[in-house]
Amino acid sequence: MVIKKRCLLWDWTNTANLPHAIEKINFSGPLCSVANWNAWAPPELKARLPFRPTVRGMDQLTDSNEWAMISNNDHEMIHFFNEPERAGISPQKAAEMWKEKMVPLRKTTGKKIIGPGCASDPGGDDWLEEFMSLVQAQNEPPDFLSLHYYGPDANAAIRYLEKMHAKYPELPVVVSEIASISRDKKEVFSFTAQLANWMDQCPWVLEYALFGCMAKVADDFVSPEAQLMNSDGTLRYLMHKLMNEQPMTGL
């Protein structure tokens, strides 16, 4: 039986520049959902997988059009904030907006809210700890713990995920971004296979997203070898393995 835990991180620029590329995606394999760091669903998705809208920052809460896209839809789960500690949003402000906007939305619609996805560094961990203490004091924790991880070592990645789960054991985990940053192709494939196979079998990981399906490398930090798409929109070998193979193998 296919285990469906893999989220497709479909970059928002694909919608304008390469919408046809999505037709090469295997929607009947291990993929379970799609996210694009935005409130709006990619029209080219055509509802072939569940979409996870993202409250990326304050704009999605304060702009009426953005909030309408977040609140008026049939999407089951919503991401709340993407690396807010790097966007100048304090844990206190985030908890305030959580209480004002997200808690009422959850109560009126039954939507599940994925907590803030912070970077896996001391700044991100400290921000998340403060936010979680504030919303737990409200007695309104998120439904899922969101985690990010980038690094070259698969075992270190697993240790980090286990550490964070042990800190918040009552919350299932959504790994909303993860990837190897090694520049060595074989190492990237090995990292991806080891993590995917481990997360597929991990009972407290709900779903996970490999970064990322986009035509251009996002920045100098992420590895070109971890890209899932070429600049012309064709899918790379790693993407073919991710959407078809279970268990995954390296090179």
TrEMBL record:
GO biological process: fungal-type cell wall polysaccharide metabolic process
Pfam family, one: Glyco_hydro_cc
Residues covered by the Asl1-like glycosyl hydrolase catalytic domain: 36-238
SUPFAM superfamilies: (Trans)glycosidases
Source organism per UniProt: Cudoniella acicularis
InterPro entries with a match to the protein in the record: ASL1, Asl1_glyco_hydro_catalytic, GH
Gene Ontology CC annotation, any one: fungal-type cell wall
PANTHER family recorded: ALKALI-SENSITIVE LINKAGE PROTEIN 1
Source superkingdom: Eukaryota
Protein name: Asl1-like glycosyl hydrolase catalytic domain-containing protein
